[in-house]
Structure formats: C-alpha cells, structure tokens
Write a structure and sequence with these properties.
The protein has about 450 residues and is mostly beta strands. It is about 15% helix and about 45% strand. The strands form 7 sheets. The chain has a 5-stranded mixed sheet with strand order 10-11-12-13-17, with no helix packed on it. A 4-stranded antiparallel sheet has the order 1-29-28-27, with no helix packed on it. It has a 4-stranded antiparallel sheet with strand order 2-3-4-5, with no helix packed on it. A hairpin with a 2-residue loop joins strand 20 and strand 21. Helix 5 runs parallel beside helix 6. About 0% of the residues have low confidence.
Length: about 450
C-alpha cells in the first residue's frame, strides 16, 4: 500500500495500525506527512503504546501525563529494554556522586526515579535526583535505627514509607516505631506509631500501605500505616512460630504471606502462613488475624518475592513466588486448597537440588514485577542480586510467564567492572537507575540509559 493510500484510511484504522508500532516507530511515522504528524500527537496513540506494546513499565499511564511526557517515558523504556536484554550492552552511561554532605549513611531508598531518601545516624535527607539538590532534611533527636526493607512500589501514586526505630526514655532493649512518608510530590511527614515497640533484630516489610514487624513482646503485628490501625497476627497451631522465626514477609494485593524457617534434624524447613489484608474501614484495630492457609516445605532459599497469582483448571487459587536459592531465581507455585492447606511445586526442582550443592549464595535481591509488560495476565519481572566469590559480583534476572502459564527464569552474571561493591544500594528496574554507597559518606548514582 502506498503512503497516499495509507492516509486515506479513517482515523480509527490508523489508530489500530499504530498499536503495532514501537515508540521510535511512531516518531518515524510522524515524519511522513502532516496528517500522520498530527495523528501521532494524539494522546490515545501514546496511551495505547504504554498499555499494549510490552515495555517494562509501572502501571499507567497517569491522567496527568502529557503527550510529550509519555513520548519521553516510552522512548526511554524502549532504549532501556533493549539494553537490559543484551548483557553486553549493560553498562552505566552516567556515573556521578551526589553533591551533598551525607555522613554515616545507614539507609537508601529510590522513589519514582526522582527522589532518593537517605537515612543517617542523625537525620533523614530527601534528594531530588533530577534537580540535583537536597530538598528536605530533618534531624532526628535520638539516634535512629533504620529498618532494612524495600518498598515494592509499582503504582505511580503509591507513597514511599521508610520505617525506623528510635530509643524511648531509658529503655535500651526496645525501640519506638516511627515511619517517614514521602509522597509523589516529594512532601515528607513523620509519624510516631504508639503501641508498637520493635527490637534491633526484628524483621520488617512494607507493602500496599501496610507494615509487618515483630514486637519486643514477641507478637507479630500488622499496621495499616495511613490509619495507624494495628492488628495482631495469630499464627496457626503447630510448630511454625514456636520453634521457627520469620525470615520472609511477602505482600500481595489482598494477602500477606509469612514464611518461617525452622531446622529439623539439621534439615531446613519452611513454614508458610497466608493472612488476608484487613479492610481498615470496617475492621476494628486490635483484631486478631487468622491464617486462611498454611503449609510447609523442605527447601532452602534466602529471599523470596511475589510474582503473580491465577486460578488452576480445577478452580483453586495459585500463588507464584520467585525464590533466591544459591545464585539462581526459581519459580515456586503454591496452590491454595479448600481445606486450608497448601501444596507446593517447583517446575525445576531437580535442577534446584543439584544447584544447592554450590557454596555460593546470592543475597540482597532487588526484584520488580510489572503486569504491563505484555498483558495483565502475562506479567514479567526483572531484578539484580549480589554474590561473593569472595569478591562481590552481580547477577541480573528475568522472569516471564508465557501464554501457556509456564514460568521461565533466566540469569546472567554481570561484568565486575559495571558495578562496584556497594555497602547499600537500591535499584529502579523501571528506569535503569541504581544508587549505592561504597563507604559511609559518599553516594554514587549510576544510570544504564542516559
């Protein structure tokens, strides 16, 4: 078909044709003639490309994004996806140190690709990476203890929550829980959470406006952060909490999964308990939450993340996790049975058992999942982790669910020259940004795309 014939087509057909074009392809189409130039300035073209083309992007687009902002986001996503897919291309294009005095860094959190929250022994600092300036600093009266938990933020409207503990009075065995909130405009607030005392070795996790931690008293609590309503997690009867300890907390859209680790005859065993997230509008604070499902599995892994959920052919809900065992990511399927039990299946379990013979283990996994990379029914994820051999090295991971429902995982070792041996780091898988610190005072920002 000639260009003249193409321009005779009605707009709805041309809109449909543009659904098959990448973001650079849409810009190439813009150069052909005035009519197609005007067509490619329509916001619908870019919102459809955002939702349908398969780029690794957070849910969106937002109603506030203009055509030109969407163009910029999609062109960046196209370039980043191309770089990520080929390990040989994966190198930092921009490497800079922050122009800021930051002594004794203890916590880092990247937010929306724009803000970096920095926790020190004395204060919390918010730095604008785009404007390259500090926009907020608050001194904390008593020395804060920053809890190391990543916010798995995929929604552009979600808040960043940074939990920490601080000493209260003469009590040196427990800490008062405090939470700093940063919204999408960079506004920052602090809240003391009355009634929650934590310890220096507690596990903590944040997700979907909720926070889970173990208290000084030994109870595990679930806090709804905006309303400050506190709920008590009642473990299922059995040995999971009496003889084990919580090693993983995984938030999902409607549930939270607690994983306990226990050793039986020198054999590591994992206990799983699934709890519904309460509705803070109707559920009274102080309510005791009971698990809907529980199960146990003999399997070693250091970290775990939620990947997706769906229904089996016989109508049972399935939860897919990815677990870091050795230096590999493995898919773990949990089927929720009607009697409240769980059944487990790993498609690569034989390979997993062989891989456990290695003495090298990954740690510090940063993993992100998006449902927009293909469709909401076929999510994909990407992440990085570190391992010591004894030098610190880095791995990249890709996880996909195909049209047949099968989960595939791929990994690749990165060139040691790409990333330094960070003490702390955070990774933005949507934008190709990593921030880290190699000592207690300097912060390095590295961009894989710019």
């Amino acid at each position: 078909m000639s260009l003249f014939d193409l321009t005779q087509l009605p707009d709805d057909i041309l809109f449909h044709v543009c659904n098959f074009l990448s973001s650079p392809g849409i810009l190439e189409l813009r150069k052909t003639c005035k009519r197609l130039h005007a067509l490619t300035l329509e916001r619908t073209i870019w919102t459809n490309a955002y939702r349908n083309f398969g780029y690794f992007l957070p849910p969106g687009p937002s109603a506030s994004q203009t055509v030109y902002e969407l163009e910029r986001v999609l062109l960046h996503a196209h370039q980043w996806d191309t770089i990520w897919a080929i390990p040989a291309l994966l190198r930092t294009r921009d490497h800079r140190s922050l122009k800021i005095s930051v002594p004794k860094i203890r916590s880092l959190a990247l937010y929306q690709g724009k803000y970096l929250a920095i926790g020190t022994l004395e204060s919390l600092i918010l730095y604008d990476l785009q404007a390259e300036k500090e926009i907020y600093r608050r001194k904390i009266q008593t020395k804060p203890f920053w809890l190391q938990c990543r916010n798995d933020i995929t929604d552009s409207s979600a808040n960043l929550y940074i939990p920490f503990g601080r000493e209260s009075g003469n009590n040196t065995t427990s800490l008062q829980l405090c939470i700093c909130k940063v919204d999408s405009l960079g506004n920052t607030t602090f809240d003391d959470i009355p009634g929650v005392e934590i310890t220096y070795d507690c596990i903590a996790s944040v997700g979907y406006d909720f926070f889970v931690t173990s208290q000084h008293s030994g109870e595990t609590v679930l806090l709804h952060i905006p309303s400050q309503k506190i709920y008590i997690i009642n473990a299922a009867s059995g040995t999971s909490t009496q003889e084990g300890h919580i090693t993983n907390v995984i938030f999902m859209p409607r549930h939270v999964l607690l994983i306990y680790t226990h050793y039986v005859n020198m054999q590591e065993r994992k206990y799983f308990e699934l709890y519904p997230l309460p509705d803070p509008m109707s559920e009274e604070p102080g309510a005791r939450l009971l698990p809907t499902h529980s199960g146990n599995l003999s399997m070693h892994f250091s970290e775990a993340s939620f990947f997706s959920s769906d229904m089996s052919v016989d109508g049972h809900e399935i939860i897919w996790l990815v677990v870091l065992a050795g230096i590999q990511l493995w898919a773990l399927r949990i089927t929720l049975q009607p009697d409240g039990s769980m059944t487990f299946h790993s498609p690569d379990y034989d390979t997993y058992r062989f891989a456990q013979r290695t003495m090298v283990h990954g740690f510090d996994l940063a993993f992100t999942v998006t449902g927009t990379a293909s469709s909401t029914s076929n999510p994909c994820g990407r992440g990085i982790s570190r391992f010591a051999t004894p030098k610190i090295s880095w791995l990249k991971y890709d996880v996909h669910r195909g049209a047949d429902g099968r989960i595939s995982t791929k990994s690749a070792v990165l060139d040691n020259r790409i990333l330094p041996s960070f003490i702390l780091y955070d990774f933005d898988a949507f934008r190709g940004l990593i921030c880290g610190t190699t000592d207690s005072e300097e912060i390095v920002v590295m961009d894989f795309v710019s």
